[in-house]
Design brief:
This protein is mainly alpha-helical and 250 residues long. The protein contains 7 helices and 6 strands, in the order E-E-E-E-H-E-E-H-H-H-H-H-H. The strands form 3 sheets. Strands 1-2 form a two-stranded antiparallel sheet. It has a two-stranded antiparallel ribbon with strand order 3-4. The radius of gyration is 31 Å and the shape is flat.
C-alpha cells in the first residue's frame, strides 16, 4: 500500500482522502475528521476515513498492551502481547482480579500482571504472595521481553574448578616460523576443531585461562568460552606456539 500524500499546507498530516488536496484542518472550510470506519475511533484520524491504527500504510507507533501494560506493542502484535494472548487462551474470564480489581482472565483469581509481579521477588521454593508483592505497585516491562529476576545465582553456573597446587607450565612464544607451501583456504569449523599438534602449549594455555578465570571471578560458561577460543586460535596456527595475531583474534 502506497503512503498517502502529505497536506501541502501543514506538511504534518496526510490528506483527508485520496481525492482531497488538504487535510480536514487545512481545508478552505476546516472541519473535524469523521470517525474511523473500521473501529469507530474519533481520535488520531489518518486518511481514507481510517485512524492511524487501522490504516495499513500508516507508520507503526508503539503502544501499551491493554492487559499487562507492557510498552512497545505494534500493529503486528494483533492488539495483545504474546504473553497475554496465551494467557487469555489458557485461563477463563473476564472476572474481577482479587488483587487489583480489574476484569481480566484470571488464574487463581488473579490477572497476569499481578501474577508476574508476585513471581519477581519470591524465592524459587516459596509460595506466591500476590497481595504482598503488589501492595507497593507493579513493575512494567517491554513487550515480550520480560524475564524473571534471578535473586539467587545457580551454584552449578558459578562453580569454579578447585585451584591447582601445581605451578603452571612455562609459556613462551617459539622463535621459529613454519612456512606454508600454499596459502590456506578459509577454514570451516562447523564440523569440529582441528587437531592441535602441540599438546604442551595447549596445556599451558588451558592452565593460564583457568587461572585468569579464577582470579577475575568468571562464571563457568564464560571460562569455558575463553578456553575454547584459545584452543581454536591454537588449532588454526601454522606455527603452534607463535604469538597470536590481532587479525586472527578479531
Amino acid at each position: 500500500m502506497t503512503a498517502p500524500r502529505n497536506c501541502p499546507e501543514c506538511r504534518e498530516r496526510p490528506v483527508a482522502n485520496h481525492h482531497s488536496k488538504y487535510c480536514h484542518r487545512c481545508r478552505p472550510q476546516p472541519c473535524d475528521p469523521p470517525p474511523c470506519r473500521q473501529c469507530g475511533s474519533t481520535e488520531d484520524y489518518w486518511t481514507a476515513y481510517k485512524c492511524r491504527s487501522c490504516y495499513r500504510g500508516s507508520p507503526e507507533l508503539p503502544a501499551s498492551c491493554p492487559d499487562c501494560f507492557a510498552w512497545g506493542m505494534l500493529r503486528s502484535h494483533g492488539g495483545l502481547c504474546l504473553g497475554c494472548r496465551g494467557w487469555r487462551r489458557t485461563y477463563p474470564g473476564p472476572r474481577p482480579c482479587r488483587v487489583c480489581g480489574r476484569e481480566f482472565c484470571l488464574r487463581d483469581r488473579a490477572c497476569r500482571l499481578c501474577w508476574r509481579q508476585a513471581r519477581m521477588p519470591r524465592h524459587p521454593k516459596r509460595a506466591l504472595e500476590l497481595e504482598g508483592a503488589n501492595r507497593n505497585g507493579q513493575q512494567l516491562f517491554l513487550v515480550d521481553m520480560e524475564r524473571r529476576l534471578q535473586l539467587r545465582q545457580d551454584p552449578q553456573e558459578d562453580r569454579q574448578p578447585p585451584p591447582s597446587t601445581d605451578p603452571p607450565p612455562p609459556l613462551a612464544p617459539v622463535q621459529y616460523r613454519q612456512l606454508v607451501l600454499f596459502p590456506p583456504h578459509e577454514r570451516d569449523l562447523r564440523r569440529g576443531l582441528p587437531k592441535v599438534d602441540a599438546p604442551g602449549i595447549a596445556a599451558a594455555l588451558e592452565a593460564a585461562a583457568d587461572d585468569y578465570a579464577r582470579r577475575h571471578g568468571l562464571k563457568k560458561r564464560t571460562a569455558f568460552g575463553l578456553g575454547r577460543g584459545l584452543r581454536i586460535l591454537l588449532a588454526l596456527q601454522d606455527t603452534p606456539g607463535a604469538p597470536f595475531r590481532a587479525t586472527d583474534v578479531s
